[in-house]
């Protein structure tokens, strides 16, 4: 592709073989391209993973994506083009505009996601259409500043990142994406996460 890149893999010490695969990739492509980090934590939050990743990131832009293949790596080129188009501070994937969509979710999961985004749009006016997705591109310095401001954990963390970005005056571009549900493993979304999301939403409404 001609793009200078590095891939930083943050693993929470899970028994699914992620670390072994990461080490193999590091041998094939070199430690300058593949950086594997193990963070021993029972409950590794997105914010914790971002902090550890930033410690090793050397580029000017950081793309955050899940490692379960729900996010297709080819979309990175679209993110880069969108960033250049508007010189955006953040480029976020959206499942709710253009030809974006979700595949593999049951009706309950779709209703929860749609409901969460609808409530957030009504209460917070965030200036972005998809608040709960994690596939995003950030300027490194912008990501660092947002991490200093954000205090949420779990699913509400992604929402707070966008809300704080708007609050700080950062520009946000969106790219329609097709999200495909994971083939292996299970989502961590449960009743506790939903309650936590609602509490976080109300907290942001009261403080922003």
TrEMBL record:
<keyword id="KW-0328">Glycosyltransferase</keyword>
<comment type="subunit">
    <text>Component of the dolichol-phosphate mannose (DPM) synthase complex.</text>
</comment>
<dbReference type="GO" id="GO:0035269">
    <property type="term" value="P:protein O-linked glycosylation via mannose"/>
</dbReference>
<comment type="function">
    <text>Transfers mannose from GDP-mannose to dolichol monophosphate to form dolichol phosphate mannose (Dol-P-Man) which is the mannosyl donor in pathways leading to N-glycosylation, glycosyl phosphatidylinositol membrane anchoring, and O-mannosylation of proteins; catalytic subunit of the dolichol-phosphate mannose (DPM) synthase complex.</text>
</comment>
<keyword id="KW-0256">Endoplasmic reticulum</keyword>
<comment type="similarity">
    <text>Belongs to the glycosyltransferase 2 family.</text>
</comment>
<keyword id="KW-0479">Metal-binding</keyword>
<dbReference type="GO" id="GO:0004582">
    <property type="term" value="F:dolichyl-phosphate beta-D-mannosyltransferase activity"/>
</dbReference>
<dbReference type="InterPro" id="IPR001173">
    <property type="entry name" value="Glyco_trans_2-like"/>
</dbReference>
<dbReference type="GO" id="GO:0006506">
    <property type="term" value="P:GPI anchor biosynthetic process"/>
</dbReference>
<dbReference type="GO" id="GO:0006488">
    <property type="term" value="P:dolichol-linked oligosaccharide biosynthetic process"/>
</dbReference>
<dbReference type="GO" id="GO:0005789">
    <property type="term" value="C:endoplasmic reticulum membrane"/>
</dbReference>
<keyword id="KW-0460">Magnesium</keyword>
<dbReference type="Pfam" id="PF00535">
    <property type="entry name" value="Glycos_transf_2"/>
</dbReference>
<dbReference type="GO" id="GO:0046872">
    <property type="term" value="F:metal ion binding"/>
</dbReference>
<keyword id="KW-0464">Manganese</keyword>
<keyword id="KW-0808">Transferase</keyword>
<dbReference type="InterPro" id="IPR039528">
    <property type="entry name" value="DPM1-like"/>
</dbReference>
<protein>
    <recommendedName>
        <fullName>Dolichol-phosphate mannosyltransferase subunit 1</fullName>
        <ecNumber>2.4.1.83</ecNumber>
    </recommendedName>
</protein>
<feature type="domain" description="Glycosyltransferase 2-like">
    <location>
        <begin position="4"/>
        <end position="146"/>
    </location>
</feature>
<dbReference type="InterPro" id="IPR029044">
    <property type="entry name" value="Nucleotide-diphossugar_trans"/>
</dbReference>
<comment type="pathway">
    <text>Protein modification; protein glycosylation.</text>
</comment>
């Amino acid at each position: 592709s001609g793009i200078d890149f590095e891939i930083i893999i943050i693993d929470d010490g899970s028994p699914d073989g992620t670390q072994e695969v990461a080490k193999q990739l590091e041998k094939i492509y070199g430690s300058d391209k593949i950086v594997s980090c193990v963070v021993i934590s029972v409950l590794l939050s997105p914010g914790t993973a971002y902090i550890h990743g930033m410690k090793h990131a050397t580029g000017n832009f950081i793309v955050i994506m899940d490692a379960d293949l729900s996010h297709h790596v080819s979309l990175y080129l679209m993110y880069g083009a969108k960033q250049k188009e508007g010189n955006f501070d953040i480029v976020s994937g959206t499942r709710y505009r253009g030809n974006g969509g979700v595949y593999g979710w049951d009706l309950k999961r779709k209703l929860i996601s749609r409901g969460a985004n609808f409530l957030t749009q009504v209460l917070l006016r965030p200036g972005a259409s998809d608040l709960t997705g994690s596939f995003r591109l950030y300027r490194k310095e912008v990501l660092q500043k947002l991490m200093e401001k954000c205090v949420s954990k779990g699913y509400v963390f992604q929402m707070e990142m966008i809300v704080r970005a708007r609050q700080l005056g950062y520009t946000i571009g969106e790219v329609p994406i097709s999200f495909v549900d994971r083939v292996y493993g299970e989502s961590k979304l449960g009743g506790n996460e939903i309650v936590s999301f609602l509490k976080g939403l109300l907290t942001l409404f009261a403080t922003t």
